[in-house]
Amino acid sequence: MSGSRSLSQSEKATLIQSLRTHRVNTLIELRRIEKVFASLKSADVTEPMTSAWAYYVNSNNLLSELRGLTKSYPFSSECLDEAKWMVIADPQSVRSWNYCWLVLQKIKNQNLIAKHARQLAAKPLMWGGRTPTAAGVEQLSAACVAEWTRALNQMLRHWESPPTTTGK
């Protein structure tokens, strides 16, 4: 399946089957297949690719990968959930088959990291049940923003350009 030759029908069917059975379920593996499918310009790969990205996000694999990149301050599931709802409510979301990319872009473009980092930092639970000081909230919030932003940017680096409904 190198870029120098075309994909056989059998190879294409195998990739589609791996998407449908969720054998391929990491960002890097999904991106690899997405690039192959984008070069095909074939409508029959759109549904399995779209479904695979939706499964990746909704089965918490995206959250798991983000948290793997944010060990000191685990990425906020509430931040991710808000971005998912925003994508679902956005009529422009049909511009891409890639739900993951849309969610990550929504987090970035709507400044959700800063919002959720501040909410997390202000919770007494984060301070052993005590009410945090304003300085403490600012310090913890800044640490979360830095780590979460680094993880978000690392994930987004997998796309050289926005994935459209044709996969490009």
Which range does the strand content fall in?
under 5%
User: Which ranges are low-confidence, i.e. pLDDT below 50, for 5 or more consecutive residues?
Assistant: none
Total count of helical runs of at least 4 residues: 8
Class inferred from helices and paired strands: mainly alpha
What proportion of the residues is helical, as a percent range?
A: 55-70%
* Large-scale geometry: elongated
The total beta strand count reads 0
Overall pLDDT level: 92
Could you tell me how far the N terminus lies from the C terminus, measured between alpha carbons in angstroms?
18 Å
Q: Compute the CA-based radius of gyration.
A: 18 Å
Largest sheet data: none
Order of helices and strands: HHHHHHHH
What is this structure's SSE topology?
Layout: H1 9-20, H2 27-40, H3 46-58, H4 61-68, H5 77-89, H6 99-109, H7 112-121, H8 134-156
What report would you give on this structure?
- By secondary structure, this protein is mostly helical.
- It has eight helices and no strands.
- Helix 5 packs antiparallel against helix 7 and helix 7 runs antiparallel to helix 8.
- The protein is elongated and about 60 Å long.
Main features:
0% strand; 168 residues; mainly alpha; 62% helix
Brief summary of the model shown:
The protein is mostly helical and 168 residues long.
